[in-house]
Design a protein that fits this description.
By secondary structure, this protein is an alpha+beta fold. It has a single domain, classed as Alpha-Beta Complex (Creatine Amidinohydrolase). It has five helices and 15 strands. About 50% of the residues are buried.
Length: about 270
């Protein structure tokens, strides 16, 4: 009987991680522009044009545009759309919506990938909590990404926090991933599961962590466009993502403008290696 081989994880040098930081910072700055541009009456294609212009003006290449035929620079997913929404001129934001904006950029051959979910005007307290707990769960996952941990320690940290916050649907079948010279690389990082499984995290590994959390069911379906993933009950979803590097000083969040210092302080974690 053959032993199943674990997927190879691309290792990066310190210099290569600095290049990934350039890509990550460009993504983070682009998402900050998009957050400020979100308001009722704006279309998802309007947001897409802002993203592409900013990435190209700063020497980057949009990761998503042309990826397996995808037409956008961003994925723009509104309300019950979980991920992979295609930017379109007729998808116009309305007061009370929430929109997930996923963005990627390539700089000198290295990728950054991040996502935020943004309220449009005034949203309900239920949606405010959904966004808050989803983003916080991301940071619990990132804080678990230290040298010496196991891959699913991040998965478990995300799920464990979410289970304390209410009865949310934690999306299965989609999750985080390795990243580096390609946007999507081994391994897949689920947003649920037991700790202590998978490869040991080592300095030089880079991952994108991205919880997707629904108000109702965890069940999903893909629309006929071949991209957009939605909740089967029509209730809203939230999605947050960051790219980070495992370092000897703890997780370095390459797509966060401050590399994660504020959030780690808020969680009471310095991200130090085990």
């Amino acid at each position: 009987m053959f032993k199943r081989r674990r997927p190879a994880i691309q290792m990066k040098t310190a210099e290569q991680i600095e290049l990934m930081r350039k890509a990550g910072l460009l993504v983070g700055e682009t998402l900050a522009l998009l957050r400020a541009a979100v308001e009722p009456g704006v279309s998802t294609l309007d947001l897409d044009k802002i993203a592409e212009a900013n990435i190209r003006d700063h020497g980057g290449i949009p990761s998503f545009k042309g990826y397996h035929g995808f037409t956008g620079t961003i994925c723009a997913s509104i309300n019950e759309e979980i991920v992979h929404g295609i930017p379109r001129p007729d998808k116009v934001l309305r007061d009370g919506d929430v929109i997930s904006i996923d963005c990627g950029a390539i700089v000198e051959g290295w990728h950054g990938d991040s996502a935020i979910t943004v309220p449009v005007g005034e949203i309900t307290p239920e949606l405010e909590k959904l966004l808050a707990v989803t983003e916080t769960s991301l940071w619990h996952g990132l804080a678990a990404g230290v040298a010496g941990a196991r891959l699913t320690d991040m998965s478990h940290a995300i799920e464990s926090y979410l289970r304390t916050q209410g009865s949310y649907g934690i999306v299965e079948g989609y999750g985080g991933h390795g990243i580096g010279t390609e946007m999507h690389m081994d391994p897949l990082i689920p947003n649920h599961g037991a700790p202590g499984h998978g490869p040991v995290l080592e300095v030089g590994m880079c991952f994108a962590v991205e919880p997707m959390v629904n108000l109702g069911t965890k069940e999903t379906e893909e629309l006929d466009d071949g991209w957009t993933v939605v909740t089967t009950d029509g209730r809203s979803s939230a999605h947050f993502e960051h790219t980070f590097a495992v370092t000897g000083d703890g997780p370095r969040v390459l797509t966060a403008l401050d590399e994660g210092r504020e959030w780690f302080a808020k969680l009471g974690s310095d991200g130090s290696a085990r």
